[in-house]
Amino acid sequence: MPPITFFSLLLFLCSAAHRADTVLGFTRSDFPRDFVFGAATSAYQYEGAVAEDGRSPSIWDTFTHAGKMSDNSTGDVAADGYHKYKEDVKLMVDTNLEAYRFSISWSRLIPNGRGAINPKGLEYYNNLIDELVKNGIQVHVMLCHLDFPQILDDEYGGWLSPTIVADFTEFADVCFREFGDRVSYWTTIDEPNVSALGSYDNALFAPGRCSDPFGITKCTVGDSTVEPYIAAHNMILAHASATRLYREKYRAAQKGVVGINVYSSWSYPMTNSNADLEAAKRYLDFVFGWILEPFASGDYPAVMKTNAGARLPSFTKSQSQLVKGAVDFVGINHYYSMYVNDRPLDKGIRDYSADMSVNQRASRTERPSGKQVPSASPSDPEGLQFVLHYLSEAYSDLPIYVQENGNSSNDTLNDTDRVEYLKTYMGSTLKALRNGANVKGYFVWAFLDVFEFIGGYRSRYGLHRVDFKDKALPRQARLSAGWYSGFLKNNGTYIQNELDNTGPHAQQ
Ligand SMILES: *[C@@H]1O[C@H](CO)[C@@H](O)[C@H](O)[C@H]1NC(C)=O
Ligand SMILES: *[C@@H]1O[C@H](CO)[C@@H](O)[C@H](O)[C@H]1NC(C)=O
Ligand SMILES: *[C@@H]1O[C@H](CO)[C@@H](O)[C@H](O)[C@H]1NC(C)=O
Ligand SMILES: *[C@@H]1O[C@H](CO)[C@@H](O)[C@H](O)[C@H]1NC(C)=O
Ligand SMILES: *[C@@H]1O[C@H](CO)[C@@H](O)[C@H](O)[C@H]1NC(C)=O
Ligand SMILES: CC(=O)N[C@H]1CO[C@H](CO)[C@@H](O)[C@@H]1O
């Protein structure tokens, strides 16, 4: 065989193997009919209108107005979803979305944190939900997506106080009562891991508490060694309490389900040494186990109790009973994988990351990133498959929804990288499903460009572009919106040439 042919054959085989592994060899109809495809946004990131119609500030208003974002941005206007939701639901119809996940601004609905309902806030969410239902789009609600009323932070430190459990349950009660006739899918809290660490360990997120040397800035208030654990503990209790309420008061009539969300990365050991294999396992216990193990066993993973000692709160007997079994499904937000190796437990003061006792990075070649968000995060669709299998096995086949998955891009409309990313991660989801993982849905983050908690308006995740420089905030479909739309519409038809012969508005 002449070298050139041999070489082409080799190339062909390699790329065929690669394609078989990663490329779209599937259609919508390969997924079960009750599997649901959607896209997501969240209240502070999408709505804007922060001082309108009776909304009170959330912790994110305070944080952004203190100039804490690297681009000095705020969510004051964001994508102006408060005014543009009808137009956006129309875009969802154009995109053939089967479901939409959004979150409720607690401080818009109940401006004092507890007590009186804001009629305008109630009206907004009723209108949005009606618009979705009218258009046949399944409604998935996140109750608390990183923002809660500033007034509760002022009063008792928000998630740091057990008082929030009762207030959160009351907020959930209002939502179940007012919206539950049209909403069956409830998720209580978004990314407790990220929220606990970002808010109380490294100060990347509102309210920006930390203690030296763990913060991204010089710390003035907080205690990174214990507060993240306390916050997560109260989130777990708040979730469990809201779930119990739903089950006792609403489930029989409304027939819905209540789940919690976790931020998820797969963890690969850097080497095959026992120490690194253990480290990768420990990572999973810290990421997933921290939040999910209490719902399975009523307690935290043993390794967390050992490494964090008394800094990790313990469950009382009645808390343990409340929490155990208090979850109908798990939602995961998934973006990339991590590579970990063992790091000896520091003898000095430790926060959560130090307790985990691993070095982590988002690619094999990067230097360990310490406690910050990785600078680059290569696509690793297989990692999602591992996560779905791991969760199915570790948590007795609880239904799983991929509630966020997506890729950032620049402002371009021709977002070929995003199409590739979504395709391959949806492919991994299908493989996991075929291999028995109990995965029920997949949501792209984000339906359109929004204010990003990391990166403000510099970082674009939308299927639809928002032109933030134009006061009218016009939306434009990206290539990815057209691609997703075609995938969802053409049911049994394999979409193949989407990148070859189409511009950004193709298939719309
Ligand atoms: C999609 O395809 C499946 C199986 O091929 C079929 O049962 C279903 O009715 C189709 N749905 C739509 C909306 O065309
Ligand atoms: C943000 O605002 C601060 C203070 O007003 C200013 O010093 C800084 O240059 C601004 N940064 C950006 C990226 O605009
Ligand atoms: C997005 O896609 C690009 C190109 O594939 C990749 O370099 C980047 O790391 C991805 N980002 C995430 C969050 O996956
Ligand atoms: C956006 O990124 C793509 C690669 O993903 C690149 O081809 C394009 O030039 C970039 N556009 C801008 C405006 O930076
Ligand atoms: C979109 O980007 C791809 C790859 O970067 C390129 O081949 C194609 O010509 C671009 N399409 C348009 C309409 O700009
Ligand atoms: C263990 C784990 O994945 N922790 C993540 C929780 O969220 C923070 C972001 O605030 C990540 O940096 C951690 O890796």
Set down the secondary structure blueprint.
Blueprint: H1 3-22, E1 36-40, H2 43-46, H3 59-65, H4 81-94, E2 99-103, H5 106-109, H6 119-134, E3 138-144, H7 150-156, H8 163-179, E4 185-189, H9 192-200, H10 227-254, E5 257-269, H11 274-297, H12 302-308, H13 317-323, E6 329-342, H14 352-356, E7 358-361, H15 381-394, E8 400-405, H16 416-434, E9 439-445, E10 464-466, E11 475-477, H17 479-489
Parallel strand pairs: 1-2, 1-9, 2-3, 3-4, 4-5, 5-6, 6-8, 8-9
Antiparallel strand pairs: 6-7, 10-11
Bound molecules: 2-acetamido-2-deoxy-beta-D-glucopyranose (6 copies).
Protein name: 4-hydroxy-7-methoxy-3-oxo-3,4-dihydro-2H-1,4-benzoxazin-2-yl glucosidebeta-D-glucosidase
Family: Belongs to the glycosyl hydrolase 1 family.
Organism: Lolium multiflorum (Italian ryegrass)
Keywords:
508 residues, alpha/beta, two-stranded antiparallel ribbon, 11 strands, disordered N terminus, disordered C terminus, binds 2-acetamido-2-deoxy-beta-D-glucopyranose
Helix content: 40-55%
Q: What name does the CATH topology carry?
A: TIM Barrel
Unreliable residue stretches = 1-23, 497-508
- Strand numbers in spatial order across the main sheet: 1-2-3-4-5-6-8-9
Mean pLDDT: 90
Notes on the protein architecture:
A hairpin with an 8-residue loop joins strand 10 and strand 11 (475-477). The chain has 508 residues and is an alpha/beta fold. It has 17 helices and eleven strands. The strands form two sheets. The protein has an eight-stranded parallel β-barrel with strand order 1-2-3-4-5-6-8-9, surrounded by seven helices. A two-stranded antiparallel ribbon has the order 10-11. Helix content is 42%, strand content 14%. The protein has one domain (26-405, 420-443): Alpha-Beta Barrel (TIM Barrel), CATH 3.20.20.80. The site of one 2-acetamido-2-deoxy-beta-D-glucopyranose has 10 residues, from strand 6 and helix 16. Residues 357-381 are annotated as: Disordered. One of its GO terms (biological process) is carbohydrate metabolic process. Residues 1-19 form the signal peptide. InterPro entries: GH, GH_1_N_CS, Glyco_hydro_1.
